[in-house]
Specification:
Layout: H1 3-6, H2 8-18, H3 22-33, H4 37-50, H5 53-77, H6 82-85, H7 103-119, H8 122-141, H9 147-176, H10 180-201, H11 207-233, H12 242-267, H13 273-298
Helix pairs in contact: 3-8, 4-5, 4-12, 5-7, 5-9, 5-11, 7-8, 7-9, 8-9, 10-11, 11-13, 12-13
């Protein structure tokens, strides 16, 4: 613990908390839940299944890599949260991970920043900036982050977004030129590298931190393999009449929920935990990327793209 946590950083948190009203707290809780895993399990499939399958593939892969980076950065710095520093701070929600960088702020900047880049509309960009700033402020209001945590999260998120904008077109073009098994090999090798770095070389300090390391890597694995197969074998088109899109989303999410809860209950207490979590979220990613589009095409809930 340093002076930045016990000094001006703590004073900023207490100042924000001094004008917290029930309305402000309710708004802050909205942004809290909009940064949880359950929310992303809704948004990412919504984009891929119901809006734009090409952008959905790019967004899913990018977000998993960005989310994974937040986990190892927290474990690298291992900085406390405000409610762990001072009893004056009243945290409305409980977080078990370390503070900097804020995952909510970083994820908001990467996910919605990518949406703004894709939309190329000024009003979308303005809304995204406002959303990211309100997300950052809400974390201070709730007493779970110092200002340096959310600033760090936003800066890292924007840096990753810039890297995505620069590298993604080049990398996508190169990967597209590879054969199917080459693409799958790239995904497997990249997943192995992620796991070697974190939780391997940068070990997690708690079971929750282990889950935070494995979940995005496993999802990346399932999504990457699924996307490679879907592009060649299914050629799913996310467009179509509105009622078919709604049915797709409801059907697909029902299976996601069944896999998440069912496999969670089935694998509970089994060791090694890292392996069973890898299987669980790898299957969820594979269903989202390949299984669901195949079902949608077979049931005529979606058309196929031209070969």
């Amino acid at each position: 613990m340093g002076l930045v946590e016990t000094g001006w950083g703590l004073q900023v948190v207490l100042w924000f908390q001094s004008w917290r009203t029930p309305v402000v707290e309710a708004i802050s809780l909205f942004f809290h839940y909009a940064g949880q895993e359950e929310f992303f399990l809704l948004v990412l499939p919504l984009v891929y299944w119901c809006i734009d399958e090409a952008f959905g593939r790019r967004l899913g892969i990018f977000f998993m890599l960005a989310n994974w980076s937040n986990g190892w950065l927290k474990e690298w710095w291992r900085r406390p949260r405000p409610f762990q520093v001072s009893p004056q701070v009243r945290n409305v929600v409980t977080e078990t991970s370390y503070g900097i960088p804020s995952g909510h702020a970083q994820n908001a900047a990467t996910l919605w920043g990518a949406v703004a880049l894709e939309a190329k509309r000024r009003w979308v960009t303005v809304l995204v900036i406002l959303y990211v700033l309100l997300t950052a402020i809400s974390r201070i209001v709730l007493g779970v982050h110092f200002p340096q945590d959310v600033i760090g999260g936003m800066v890292i998120g924007l840096a990753l977004l810039g890297l995505y904008a620069w590298l993604e077109p080049k990398l996508s073009g190169w990967i597209t030129e590879q054969r199917l098994w080459g693409q799958i090999g790239i995904v497997v090798a990249a997943t192995a590298l992620l796991l070697i770095i974190h939780p391997g070389l940068i070990p997690p300090s708690t079971p929750d931190a282990l889950a935070g390391a494995v979940t995005p890597a496993a999802s990346f694995l399932g999504l990457g393999i699924g996307f490679a197969l879907e592009v060649r074998l299914v050629r799913f088109d996310a467009h179509g009449v509105w009622w078919k899109r709604i049915i797709r989303l409801m059907l697909g999410l029902a299976v996601v929920l069944a896999l998440r809860l069912g496999l969670g209950a089935l694998f509970e207490g089994l060791e090694p935990a890292i392996l069973f979590r890898l299987i669980r979220y790898g299957l969820i990613g594979l269903w989202a990327a390949l299984g669901a589009p195949w079902v949608f095409v077979k049931t005529r809930l979606a058309d196929r793209r031209p070969a």
